[in-house]
Write a structure and sequence with these properties.
The complex is a heterodimer of chains A (355) and B (278). Chain A has 355 residues and is of the alpha+beta class. Chain A has 13 helices and 12 strands. The model of chain A has no long low-confidence stretch (mean pLDDT 91). With 278 residues, chain B is an alpha/beta fold. The chains are: A alpha+beta (355), B alpha/beta (278).
């Protein structure tokens, strides 16, 4: 454990920038919204910025990513294929614990199953992760319900906690420790850790009053979703409310469905692009010829919640697929973000008044 | 067992050697991988599928009709969308891309010693062909083997040469029917399940493989169950929209399974619990 003066915290980002492409929370001047973006100058990073509007999953799973380019002129001509896997070393500076959990979900899904996803692996390789403890929750947060916050517990190289005049720095890896030693940071005392723990405990108690938009008793509905005991009327209501915009999938730190398209870049050349997709779209499961095994919108909608909350699906993430960031609730025009759906299922109601 | 090479992420090129017209909008493409070493190690299991790239158009999932043994590698594809349209435009000598083979495949060892019924509606015979030819090559190890094929018209009967061969193959019982006869058609007329009585379908120690359009599938399953076949003795292969073939894109998710990695071959007992249309 180490300490660094609050004003000096970006020195760590600065040190990382010599070796890594640094990403961090940046407040966009026009909209005032926070985005987790690549920074040219580490001074753009704002560690006290609210939770980013979109998760940092685009860094390992870009919205549109060229995975291959090819050229083929037909007939006997050879097919020139160029795989396009990128392996730039990246440092994520100031990641919130929910987003780290989302990243871990993606790791387990893309790397930890029968097939390893080479595209994801190349983007995920050589990464340095610095998390930032949420000493105050935000309006839509419910990570306390999904066991993914407010402080990161594993999977980081360094974890920062704002303990007043200083940041407490915990190293979670040899790589993290080496950086702290190199920067000759002051050692922290037990009382500093005690202060961090006090702040985390306090943060948890603040959810009741701060995170007024979101509460989701996830563990209670996992059983019902797994065993199919969630009422059909609830799914129908959820389906009626769904605009099929796909926003919930795009802002979800653990949603990773993708589409693959070959787009022409010249007469005989194409780029193979991997793009985000959403299970709420009607065309998602439609086959060539028009047959679509999933027609009604409620059928497609419950798939998403099944994917996030059933035991059988959680095997791929080794935890629930929801990380409690609350972004789906924030963006959903139909008011069927995760917390509301959890409440509908739990109370077996389709009435907004009973929430 | 499938110990051959699996092409996972970047397709390998293959050259189309011959093209055969099957029925309207359906052609068979014989091909081999350009990398000869790989071609030798490219082993499939019947019931598996591959992802086929048509350069400039895209990629699609397609079932494999060749038997794993002594059969020339080929795909039989109906022209049904933009990518398969582009495939149908190709000529011998043109190149395509191949990834795979993927999926679990039909059981083979598990069904030894049993009676086998194949029920194929229309181009549903394409994925079943692999298993039929495989069983034919090992006929001694099985009981009665019945192939029941129904098509819309006599012109829509798939793999006519194979059907002829199977009709005269000792120990194979092949029945053919069409929904609508044409002048000169002397065979059966009626949906494929109307053949069941004529074929004196076995029930005990029997496995049925069913593949065809959803409406045919449901009728046939109903008939088979009525006759006393157990739901775990009815086997089918499902078709889904797929983008990756390796369990990542999630397009083929059905219930708690993925058709690409857990399927495409399921028993009817499994299909019933997946909670989705066929």
């Amino acid at each position: 454990m180490y300490l660094i003066k609050k004003n000096d915290i970006l020195q760590i980002a600065k040190a990382l920038s010599t070796e890594y492409q640094v990403y961090g929370p940046v407040i966009e001047p026009g909209s005032g919204q926070t985005f987790f973006e690549k920074v040219e100058d580490v001074s753009e990073i704002n560690l006290s910025a609210p939770i980013p509007a979109a998760p940092p999953k685009h860094i390992v799973f870009p919205q549109a990513d060229r995975i291959l380019s090819y050229r083929y002129a037909g007939g006997n001509a050879p097919v020139e294929m160029k795989p396009d896997f990128k392996e730039t070393p990246k440092a994520l500076f100031g990641l919130r614990s929910c987003d780290l959990t989302g990243l871990q979900c993606l790791d387990r899904f893309f790397l930890g199953q029968e097939f390893v996803d080479e595209v994801y692996r190349s983007l995920r390789k050589k990464m340095f992760i610095v998390t930032n403890t949420c000493v105050v929750p935000f309006k839509y947060c419910f990570c306390v319900c999904t066991d993914s916050g407010p402080a990161a517990e594993e999977g980081y190289d360094l974890n920062l906690t704002d303990i007043g005049d200083n940041f407490l720095i915990e190293a979670g890896s040899a790589k993290g420790k080496a950086l702290c030693e190199k920067l000759q940071l002051a050692k922290a005392a037990d009382k500093d850790l005690a202060e961090k723990n006090r702040l985390v405990d306090k943060s948890i108690t603040l959810f009741e009053s701060f995170s007024t938009e979101s509460k989701a008793w996830v563990s209670r509905v996992m059983n019902r979703i797994t065993t199919g005991f969630a009422k059909e009327e609830v799914w129908e209501y959820v389906g009626d409310q769904c605009f099929e915009c796909g926003a919930c999938s795009f802002v979800c730190p653990s949603c990773s469905c993708f589409n693959v398209v070959d787009t022409a870049t010249g007469d005989c050349s194409c780029d193979r692009l991997r793009t985000w997709d959403s299970c709420s779209y009607e065309g998602y499961s439609r086959m060539a010829g028009g047959h679509n095994p999933r027609k009604p919108v409620e059928d497609r909608r419950n798939k998403r919640f099944f994917c996030k909350l059933s035991y059988s699906q959680s095997k791929k993430y080794l935890r629930p697929g929801c990380v409690g960031c609350g972004r789906c609730d924030w963006v959903c025009p139909g008011d069927i973000g995760m917390p509301n759906v959890v409440k509908y299922i739990r109370r077996e109601t389709t009435s907004r008044d009973q929430l | 067992m499938n110990n051959g090479t699996k092409i996972v992420t970047i397709p390998e090129t293959a050259t189309i050697e011959d093209i055969k017209d099957e029925i309207r909008d359906v052609k068979t493409f014989y091909m081999s991988l350009d990398n000869k070493e790989l071609d030798k190690n490219f082993k499939i299991k019947s019931g598996q599928f591959i992802m086929c790239t048509i350069f400039g158009a895209g990629e699609f999932a397609v079932s494999l009709p060749p038997s794993p043994e002594n059969d020339r590698f080929h795909l039989t594809v109906r022209k049904v969308g933009s990518v398969t349209d582009a495939l149908h435009e190709l000529k011998a000598g043109d190149k395509v891309g191949i990834r795979g083979p993927f999926g679990n495949g039909f059981p083979f060892e598990e069904i030894k010693g049993k009676n086998i019924i194949y029920v194929a509606g229309g181009i549903g015979l394409i994925p079943l062909r692999s298993s039929i030819v495989h069983v034919l090559q090992h006929k001694k190890e099985f009981g009665r083997v019945l192939v029941l094929h129904g098509a819309r018209t006599p012109d829509d009967l798939m793999y006519k040469e194979n059907l002829k061969e199977w009709q005269s193959f000792p120990g194979f019982e092949t029945y053919i029917t069409v929904d609508v006869g044409t002048p000169g058609w002397t065979g059966e007329v009626g949906f494929v399940h109307t053949l069941f009585d004529k074929a004196n379908l076995p029930v005990e120690n029997t496995v049925a493989f069913v593949c065809g359009p959803p409406v045919m599938f449901n009728t046939v399953i109903g008939e088979l169950l009525k006759r006393g076949l157990r739901d775990d003795c009815i086997i089918s292969t499902l078709e889904r929209h797929m983008k990756c073939g390796v369990g990542k894109c999630q397009h083929c998710a059905i219930g708690r399974t993925l058709v690409c990695t857990d399927g495409p071959v399921y028993t009817y007992r499994q299909i019933k619990t997946l909670g989705e249309q066929i």
